[in-house]
Specification:
Oligomer: single chain
Strand order of the largest sheet: 8-7-9-10-6-11
Number of helices: 11
Helix content: 40-55%
Structural class: alpha/beta
Radius of gyration: 22 Å
Order of helices and strands: EHHEEHHEEHEHEHHEEHEHEH
Number of strands: 11
Length: 317
């Protein structure tokens, strides 16, 4: 006798939000599970070998929606993968903050949830992982939330620009114009969170400061939430300089992808060295995000997996 199960939605709006237009999210269930899927009038039925697994996955997806989450293909794949790995408990994460457009921002994977919790609990956090894992965006959201709750007085965003040694002189324009292209991801995140008008006010008042890493030298940064992005392009000397900048009531998040360094060959990487030296030190956390935490297109996850496999074969050779 075939296994069977079902999920019922309270109304059509909930079913539409979870299942997508024309039940398009169910196509992912059909690919992942060996069972027939039938959707009729707010009720989804599963019949076949994997019916119970498919029911659990859709139940987790429905729970995410009921907790205020927006259901996208990312959430669909995440819930399916959790069940396939034997995770029976629905994923739950609190909203970090609500954007100017009313969007609730919360972690979307277990790794992201651990990363956010580490930022809340520690003074210095390293977020290490591939592109698309939300390292920079979530750090920026946590900074914005701290500013909104008046836990800090300002946000400072910095990044190595152009080269590890930050040779900006050949670029046209003033300092801001030279740095802008390299800090665009940080600008975009803050504008998304605060809205353009409030973001511009904060920039004008110096509440949000964005500068190349070289301009951190000699400063003491108190009552601030400081984010160093693209830290894989720092030298060991630069990283040590940066890590000694905090004053009282400051929090630091350092993000980077160790597989995408632009440092010259044989130059010791500041991010890798710092993680090795500081892992386990009280008040410091190192969070390793993986391909499972990628929240962009599934193609990004497959590209990362393919490169990891390729590099693994080369090391063995």
């Amino acid at each position: 006798m075939s296994n069977s199960g079902h999920i019922t939605f309270s109304d059509g709006a909930a079913a539409f939000a979870v299942l997508g237009a024309n039940d398009r999210h169910l196509s992912e269930f059909a690919k992942a599970f060996d069972c027939k899927i039938m959707s009729r009038g707010g009720k989804v039925e599963f019949v076949g070998k994997d019916a119970s697994l498919a029911q659990k996955a859709l139940g987790q997806l429905k729970y995410l929606f009921e907790q205020g989450g927006q259901i996208t293909p990312t959430e669909v794949r995440f819930c399916i993968n959790r069940v396939l790995k034997g995770e029976d408990t629905p994923f739950a994460a609190d909203t970090i903050m609500v954007t100017a457009k009313g969007r609730h921002i919360r972690p979307k994977t277990d790794g992201q949830a651990r990363y956010v919790a580490a930022i809340a609990a520690n003074d210095v956090v390293f977020g290490i992982g591939p592109a698309g894992t939300g390292k920079t965006y979530l750090a920026t959201v946590m900074a914005a939330a701290a500013l909104r709750k008046k836990r800090v007085e300002r946000i400072i965003l910095t990044r190595p620009a152009v080269e590890a040694d930050e040779h900006l002189g050949f670029l046209p324009g003033d300092l801001q114009e030279k740095v802008d292209p390299y800090l665009r991801p940080l600008y975009d995140a803050l504008q998304d969170i605060f809205g353009l008008e409030l973001y511009q006010k904060f920039i004008a008042r110096g509440i949000i400061e964005i500068a190349p890493l070289a301009y951190m030298r000699g400063r003491t940064l108190s009552d601030a939430f400081i984010i160093l992005d693209e830290a894989q392009n720092t030298t060991a000397k630069q990283m040590k300089m940066f890590l000694t900048r905090p004053g009282f009531n400051s929090k630091m998040v350092i993000t980077g992808d160790l597989t995408q360094t632009d440092l010259p060959k044989n130059t010791p990487g500041g991010l890798k060295t710092a993680c090795e030296v500081l892992r386990g030190v009280k008040g410091i956390a190192v969070c390793d995000l993986t391909g499972e935490d990628v929240v962009r297109s599934p193609l990004v996850g497959r590209i990362i997996a393919a490169y990891d496999a390729y590099e693994g074969r080369n090391k063995e050779a």
